[in-house]
Design goal:
The complex is a heterotrimer of chains A (288), B (333) and C (503). Chain A is of the alpha/beta class and 288 residues long. Chain A has a single domain, classed as 3-Layer(aba) Sandwich (Aldehyde Dehydrogenase, Chain A, domain 1). Chain A contains ten helices and ten strands. Classes of the chains: A alpha/beta (288), B alpha/beta (333), C alpha/beta (503). Strand 10 (277-285) of chain A pairs parallel with strand 18 of chain C, so a sheet runs across the interface.
Amino acid sequence: MKQPERLSVLKTYKLFVGGKFPRSESGRVYEVTDAKGRWLANAPLASRKDARDAVVAARKAFGGWSGATAYNRGQILYRVAEMLEGRRKQFVHEVADGEGLSKAKATAQVDAAIDRWVWYAGWSDKTAQIAGSANPVAGPYFNLSSPEPTGVVVLLAPQESSLLGLVSVIAPAIVTGNTAVVVAAERAPLPALSLAEVLATSDLPGGVVNILSGRTAEIAAPLAAHQDVNAIDLAGAEPELAVELEKAAAENLKRVLRPQAVDWAADPGTGRLLAFLETKTVWHPMGV
Amino acid sequence: MPTTVPAYGEEAAERLASMADVTAGDSALRRFLHGLPGVDAVGLQARAATLGTRSIKTTAKAYAIDLAISMIDLTTLEGADTPGKVRSLCAKGINPDPTDRTAPRVAAICVYGDMVATAKEALKDSGIHVAAVATAFPSGRAALSVKLADTREAVAAGADEIDMVIDRGAFLSGRYLEVFEEIRQVKAACVREDGSGTAAHLKVIFETGELQTYDNVRRASWLAMLAGADFIKTSTGKVAVNATPPVTLVLLEAVRDFRAAVGVRVGVKPAGGIRTSKDAIKYLVMVNETLGEEWLSPEWFRFGASSLLNDLLMQRQKLSTGRYSGPDYVTVD
Amino acid sequence: MPVFEYAPAPESRAVVDIAPSYGLFIDGEFTEAGDGKVFKTLSPSSEEVLSEVAQAGAEDVDRAVRAARKAFGTWSALPGAERAKYLFRIARIIQERSRELAVLESLDNGKPIRESRDADLPLVAAHFFYYAGWADKLAYAGYGPDPRPLGVAGQIIPWNFPLLMLAWKIAPALATGNTVVLKPAETTPLSALFFADICRQAGLPNGVVNIVTGDGSTGAELVAHPGIDKVAFTGSTEVGKAIARTVAGTKKKVTLELGGKAANIVFDDAPIDQAVEGIVGGIFFNQGHVCCAGSRLLVQESVQDELLDALKRRMSTLRVGDPLDKNTDIGAINSAEQLARIRALADAGEAEGAERWAPECELPSSGYWFAPTLFTGVTQAHRIAREEIFGPVLSVLTFRTPEEAVAKANNTPYGLSAGIWTEKGSRILWMANKLRAGVVWSNTFNKFDPASPFGGYKESGYGREGGRHGLEAYLAGAAEPTSEHRGHLPPEAGGKGEGERDR
């Protein structure tokens, strides 16, 4: 008698908030399908309240994360790359399914995403050196400008690049000390939700990255209007939504990175790294 | 013109005594002096510079020039000083502008101890004081007994005021109590031995150019005031850096705070390097806005200077005639 | 004994010749507003009318933007070294005419001549010198090997430092190859119009700098104009938010320098006399019309009494009066409207139970005046601890520990500046690190320099002015996230003429 084929164990995908994996407060999920419309999984449908909780978690984590040494943040980001490498196969699978890519193309995306983590990890203790300055003022003062993280940053992950794009918006934001609330690609959220599992096992303090899945427009609206959010990356917003969100973001003068065409495979440059920084200039007299 | 130098009343003595604990021992005194608020050099200099931008014109200028003349300790402290030189300086102090008898007299003639008698005789009853530098001026490097003898001789010769120097070596090596005791003993040596119970008034010179930091200057100011100084004075005029507006501002602030804390008024004397009317007026502005009008009198503020007087006189002539004056219209003494 | 009363020492008004009326400076010429509208500019110290100025409408703004667009091609194509020389010329002419400009500024703004002469004008000239030097070195500024200008910058400046804010806006814009349309504040248009004459003397090509005078509606027209590529605004947070909404969805790059409610934090081991000077300079400089003013004094409880005594004593020596008198420390409030706002907030302070104190001082009978004022017993809940007063009013709060000081200092939607006073170096660095503010002055306050970046966190705005950082606001690709944007910048920035732009 033929043995029945082993029934695989399906994963229940969950949100990632404050280092924990809650279900959506809404109690709802939505179907995630592959490029051909086949069911892949149910993903949590995050609500406004989940968004609110994520902001609270990100704010709570901000002091510790921004106060950690740059070396320490670099070590942790590198650790993320190590963990990603270990789950390479899983991500190739998820990316291929979600984006409808061949295995080879998906592999290239995953490899690039891992390499990107490594690249950004190395920036942790160099950003201040390229973005800061010693200012020769006309007086007896020591005057130094250095970049500091903006605070809590909302990242609308790119819709079209579920892992490489995602990584390319998360890593530059957090490596400088920001904490993030990420809205995963709406139709392909699984790599993002799996990335949460990587982050949870990489010594990254809870709350530094919070990942929500669901309807981008629904989750982004309260986040863009949230008074305790300092910046928003609109990478994953459709043009009309982007305008709406930018307007909402004006209410507390969030720093806004407008959406634009990006080749996620290309050298990312320092743009995103420097986009969520504040320059602080400190003066002190020099005298005996 | 009032020329009485400050004297401590009974009450002041009591209040000074209330500070006795801070001078009870070396460590207590050190703790106290090092517990004084710090001085930020850049901020201090900026404040002094801003006060220096006050624009003193017309009536205010006339007032300030006469006030400045009346505050001068007209000084000669040269190895080459002779009785003749001192007498002519005294004549100048009594009658600074021979063409204008309304010019005020200076506050004092400041000389070495051995010239006190000559100056005293030349000044007669003009009301101008004789100030003698003492305590191994200008270096202060001599045995205490020599310094005390130096002081006593000057007082005996009739000096109204003693300008002593502190032992900067002791101060810089942290032996504050030693400096304190020395000032106290010199103060005691200022008591006249004629049975009058009066004393010459003591001005304590810090030589701020050698103390280097404003923190040190503030500490030295408190140290001297606690020890009984009637005046605190910046410099001897014998080193590279003498009175400056910021260093004088530190003295003024210390005097202000000492008065608030102890209730005793002390005078201030910047000396050395003040040569122009413009500079002198800046100092008066500084006094006015730090200590107030109460201190705008020769009783409480002096300039240690020599060439300043002629510049003030030339400015005075300009104000009264409308024409710029020249060095040939003031006396060279 | 006579007292030492400083006789009046007025700076001569004769050095400045104000015309009875001024037009808009567009394409190198003064022209009337299309609809012929004008408004009056007053001297706030006397309420005397200084001049009549054109009120630019939509059509005028459009003309100015077109002129700037037309000039952009040639201007941006000039070698940096040539642009530099224009800016050096401007800097020099400002130095030459600094007395005239200082008097003008004090007349139109009400600020003391001591400040316009010793602070504003030297900083204005220095700013042009600084950015002049950048014009031919942009490739080394860290914004890519060939950074390009944005195009036409619409710039709106406030009334508190009219000419200095003009310099902060125009110098970096021109150095980087942009052309500008600048709108000075309604109550202080004159120095910008005199600057137009400086541009003429410097031989600056027509249309590179255009000055449109007017009120808020003129500014709104400028911000909304589709022909500008950049908005640079200094002013209130409220207007800043409106601007951010207006430009949403456009390609316009924006920098905003907005309000503040800075904490000036004094520890018990502070250099007290200098701290007092810093507090006074922090809140009474320019009548407190300073976005980075140290308007909240946070004093450690253990030194409160001593510090407040010293502060009150020092405040009693402040001389309030004629801005043109060289001995004046505090001049006139810029406008009746601003005076009303200051009064309303001060009254709110009293009504909410804070204790009000001001030194005795006689205020002139005409003009807009407000005595330097101190409120004690203020808590974070009071309006005067939260709202920007933009006047000579200091709110005093206390704290017990460094943690508490930081928490209170940061407890505001603003984040422009902060002050720290302590002799303990490590505490300064710890505090400076924790304070969420763009400029931290330790053992000093209200210091500015063209080489030093200035700008806020949070609702104090975004972008930096000054220093290498100040270039970024006017360069394309500087903070763009992709290599595509950095590397293959569309040629439009390089010199396409009007009409060819794809927006």
